[in-house]
Structure formats: structure tokens, C-alpha cells
Amino acid sequence: xxxxxxxxxxxxxxxxRGLGAATVRLLAEQGADVAFTYxxxxxxxxxxxxxVRGKGAKAxxxxxxxxxxxxxxxxxDDVVAHFGGLDILVNNAAIxxxxxxxxxxxxxxxxxxMHATNYLGVIAIIRAASRVLRAGGRIITVSSGLGxxxxxxxxxxxxxxxxxxxxxxxxxxRDLGPRNIxxxxxxxxxxEGGMEKETPPETLKALLSSLSLQRMxxxxxxxxxxxxxxxxxxxxxxxxxxxxxxxxNA
Length: 250
Description:
Layout lengths: L8 E4 L5 H12 L3 E6 L3 H13 L4 E5 L8 H12 L4 E4 L16 H23 L7 E7 L11 H21 L5 E7 L12 H9 L9 H12 L10 E4 L6
Helix pairs in contact: 1-7, 3-4, 4-5
């Protein structure tokens, strides 16, 4: 198998399960040394580490809560101390909370936590990582089709967090371009084993009907899009949004 990422160091946030774990596995298969974060699922995180190491690649897991922006600098320092540098940052970690803006019973604490995790937390990690990313580095931010097309009620806050990190990543592309560092977005869609477990059945049905492919994606399919943007093949791609959501409202 070709290993285009040999010699590279990657950090994947939220890498213990789902899309994050699929991305960790694929980047490692392509030759990268991979660090990833988790919040509470230490057993799952260790299982991913063991799986990657069992295939002869290098992986390490760090416990870090993205909602606490003060933890971002220490996380980046830990990755650099462990692997000697950083070349690829994949901003995957996110949580979901829903509620219409006029709902008097909306869980505003959960919504505020989502904003802290999905938006402020991503910004903090990008800021910290940008200071140490080596020339030719890659920043890939995982967003959602809801970041550009809000197709269901109750998703205003979630969509805002995703739209926000998309625009932030576009600005990062401009700021870091002179250092030959690219910054791009992957708009992910509904995935097996993903946030659809937290989605009301009627909302899930509506979302599936809005997809051109009329099916959920597999984490490996979205991980492939991330790996492309991390690879040498995407050296002239920056400030772009790559849709990997099955044709959501296409």
C-alpha cells in the first residue's frame, strides 16, 4: 500500500470512535504517526491505539476536553513532545444539541456547551497548532451539511457552530498560506454510528430524504476525503469546502 504520509505527524481530535477513529486508522495506514484526543472513553481510545500499533504504526491518545479552551496549548505541546513535531491537524471533535430558538424549555446549558466545544474549542486548537505546524502542513476542519444548508428546525445553534468554523478555516487559509500550510473543510453527512443516534426519528427521516444518495455514509468514506486533503495530492487545495455528505440538498 502507498504511504504518502510517511514522516508526517497528525493530530485528530475526538479520535476514539466513529469518524475520528476511522480517520486515525486511515492516516496511520498511509504512514503518519497519529495522536488523537478523547474526553471520557479511555477504554475505546486505548482500543484504537492498540489496533493501530498492532499494524506496525504509531499512535497515542491524549485526554483533553475541547470545551475547555485553556487545555489547547498543553495538548499541542504534548503532541510535539511525543512525536517531535506536527504536520496535520484534523478538527473532528464535536457534540450535538438541538432546540428551536423559541422553545421555552430548550436546554440552553447544553447549547452553550456545544458552542464552546464545536466553535471556541476548534479555534483554540487551531491557534495553538498554527504556531508549531511545519511548512507544508495541513489543517482539515470537519463540518456538516448543516454548516451551509439548514434543512430542519431545531438546528440553528448546531448549524451556527459549523458555519462559524467553516468561515474561520477560510481565514486560516489566508493567514497561513505564506507558510505553505493549507486549511480546508470537509462537510460530513449522516454516518453509521454517528450523531444520528441522538436525532429524533422524524428529523432523521427528513434528513435522509434530502440526500441524493438516499443512505447514510460510512465513516471510512468521509475519512477518505480527510485523508485526501492531508495528502501531497492536495498541495494546491486551500480555503476549500469538500462535500462528503451524500448530496445533502444537492
